[in-house]
Amino acid sequence: MSPALPFNGLIDYRQPTPPAGLTVGGKAQGLYQLRRLGLPVPGFVVIPAEVFDPVLAGLGTTEADLAARGDAGGPGAGAGRVGGAGRSRALVGGR
After folding, report:
1. Is the distance from CB of 19 to CB of 50 less than 8 angstroms?
2. Which residues, 6+ apart, have CB-to-CB distance to 6 below 8 Å?
3. Burial classification of residue 11, based on how many CB atoms lie within 10 Å of its CB (0-12 exposed, 13-18 middle, 19 or more buried)
4. What is the pLDDT of residue 54?
5. What CA–CA distances, in Å, run from 80 to 85, 89, 92?
6. Where are the domains of the chain?
7. Residue 4 zone, left/alpha/beta (φ > 0; ψ -120 to 50; rest)
8. How would you class 2 by CB atoms within 10 Å of its CB: exposed for 0-12, middle for 13-18, buried for 19 or more?
9. Distance between start and end Cα atoms, the chain
10. Max Cα–Cα distance, the chain, nearest Å
11. How far is CA 5 from CA 1, 50, 56, 66, 95, in A?
12. Cα atoms in the Cβ-side hemisphere of radius 13 Å centred on 6
């Protein structure tokens, strides 16, 4: 059983540490570490990976699925978008 997510799925920077059992990325971990060291850190919000699990669970990852979403890897694919073509390729075997 996964841990309960915060009310809106976001972790507020005022929490001293991310809730146990939730997956946060390296940037969030670094910000929490800087705060523990007493350095000034601007306010931030963390979206744990578990928030995306239900969204990603229904998405197909075949080349046809990616092409149907306009997310297939090719020259210029994903340009200007976060996650772009590199992430799509990783979902279908890292090609």
Report:
1. no
2. 12, 19
3. buried
4. 80
5. 10, 16, 21
6. 1-56, 59-95
7. beta
8. exposed
9. 32
10. 49
11. 12, 8, 17, 29, 33
12. 18
Structure tokens at 44: 């931030």
Residue 16 CB burial class (10 angstroms; 0-12, 13-18, ≥19): exposed
User: Per-residue pLDDT tens for 27-74?
Assistant: 999 999 999 999 999 999 898 888 888 878 878 888 888 888 876 555
> How long is the chain?
95
Partner residues linked to 12 by β-bridges? 45
Kindly report the pTM of this predicted structure: 0.53
- From CA 87, how far away is CA 10, in angstroms rounded? 23
Q: In the structure encoding, which two tokens stand for residue 9, read together?
A: 């799925």
Query: Tokens 């979403």 correspond to what residue?
Result: 69
Residue whose structure tokens are 């046809």:
64
